[in-house]
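ok here's Glycosyltransferase:
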Amino acid sequence: MAKGHVLVLPMPCQGHVIPLMELSHRLADEGFEVTFVNTEVDHALVVAALPPGGAAELRQRGIHLTAIPDGLAEDEDRKDLNSSSTPTRSTCRATLSGSSGRSRPAAGGPRRLGIRVVYFSPASTACIAFMRKIPKLIEDGVLNEKGWPERQETLQLAPGMPPLHTSLLSWNNSGAAEGQHIIFDLVCRNNKFNDDLAEMTVCNSFHEAEPAVFKLFPDLLPIGPLVADRELRRPVGHFLPEDGGCLDWLDAQPDGSVVYVAFGSMAIFDARQFQELAVGLELTGRPFLWVVRPDFTPGLSTAWLDAFRCRVAGRGVIVEWCSQQRVLAHAAVACFVSHCGWNSTLEGVLNGVPFLCWPYFCDQFLDRSYITAVWRTGLAVAAGEEDGVVTRDEVRSKVEQVVGDGEIRERARLLRDTARACVSEGGSSHKNFRKFIDLLSE
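and the structure:
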């Protein structure tokens, strides 16, 4: 008999689905039944990307996939957070209202019904800290009431925390400026939800990675890094099918030789930036594995890409998607050219891989700050001041610097060992996970 039934509700994007699916596997291991609720669009993507027998495996483990509408028209852009947040929130609120008879649950309501509410954050706890500090930042005149910076300055909430310029706050880097108020409103609503309803805030992080934040907010419970067991190869909710052939190619490469390049599920490059990156990788003379989603660069010349593939044939491999955890665990990988999404950051950390940071939006600039300024396990690319383009020479030069820096490699190795100790029995994250399970079991 199951210990209990857990309803998992991720935000409809890949970076939230993956860690919550990994958490769902951990809950299933503990004997809980899990219902995992995606939007209809994301549900279809997840099911289509599952390996043969994947859906049956999930059901057998007690993880049940289901879907709800997102409130968007079929042709609307679901990668635009500004345009997608409002209808999704309204639709989900209507769904909850239909089941509870209230437009909004009263504080303590779920507990009276025997429901425990836990807020899970897939971002760094530093990101949570900046969100929690919004009222104070407004009071101090750093932000206005709409979340825009009143002063151009670099903030550091506490010693040891990553510095972040006011222009790079996550809610101001999530899409078009005219829709910023939607994201800021969503952040503020999430803060209020957390305060009113959640009994616990669980984080995909580990204490030793962000000690200054946990000193500032001791109520946060880090249980990460959450990664699926690489040996069992459990389904983790990818939106695209994995290309397994790249792992065979990695097996044929020397240890510490391959540049792995991936920008997550949301980043978009224009044709010029794509070409500069491609030629920069070519100029390194190193083998590389590059994940290029079908929608990564709209309008890219097929002829140009075919010519590039011919020039790097045998040395460069381009795939649409892959098992990033297994790639980063491979001995052939020398460095990770990354958008610095928090999931990717933790996966790189857990495998001791140095970073070349290339953030795109949201909290990725904060994660870059951790990598380059706090942990010092990587470097960042520098874009041109006038056109914002990262040149081929910058790519070549920074890759060589990262790969050739023994001190960066050593710091990455030490952080890897710390992360692994945290999730091992007796480690800080392992103990916190037991606290989380105890709460759900009450």
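+1. DSSP finds 18 helices and 14 strands in the chain.
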